[in-house]
Amino acid sequence: MAAVYWLIAFVVLVGIEAATMALTTVWFAGGAIAAFVAALAGAGVEVQLAVFAAASFILLLFTRPLAARLLKSGKNQIRTNVDGLIGRRAKVTEVVDNELGTGAAVVGGQEWTARAFDGKSRFLPGEQVEIRAVEGVKLMVSGIQKEN
Predict the structure, then answer these.
(1) Do 124 and 62 share a structural domain?
(2) Using CB atoms within 10 A as the burial measure, which of 6, 65, 125, 144 is most buried?
(3) pLDDT tens across 44-64, in order?
């Protein structure tokens, strides 16, 4: 009869994991399966609990770092908000000159304050520039690299 409870625990834990997708209960679902197997083998409740705890801990210890690394790889991430501007091109609408503290550029139909990324370059209205970073409400821009 204890095997049924481990199956119920497994289903509940997998359901929670499916609902949250946060890698929080999947390790314990694996432990529930291990305890289920122990229950089918005729182990006592104490042994089942020990198997559940040990399997959950081992899964958490050895597979969580790997899973976290795979989920956080740069290929799977989509840049949003201002991070999505980095690498895009903008059109200068006001002279970008760090010494004078002037500069504006339009990207995606929005006008932003712009400054030279290297602190020295100067860009004239109408020039295309590349957004290298966003600092507060300022686009840090540089000249577009010419391809050979």
Answers:
(1) no
(2) 6
(3) 999 999 999 999 999 988 887
**Which of these three, 32, 50, 76, is where a domain ends?**
76
Q: Classify residue 39: in a domain, yes or no.
A: yes
Would residue 8 count as lying in a domain?
A: yes
Stated as kind and residue range, the H or E segment containing 36 is helix 26-40
Please state, in angstroms and rounded to a whole number, the distance separating the CA atoms of residues 125 and 88: 17
DSSP 95: E
Neighbours of 42 (CB within 10 A): 8
Q: Per residue in 48-74, is it b (16+ CB within 10 Å) or e — as a string?
A: beebbeebbeebbeeeeeeeeeeeeee
If asked whether residues 63 and 92 sit together in one domain, one would say no
* Digit-coded pLDDT (tens) for 110-132: 999 999 999 888 999 999 999 99
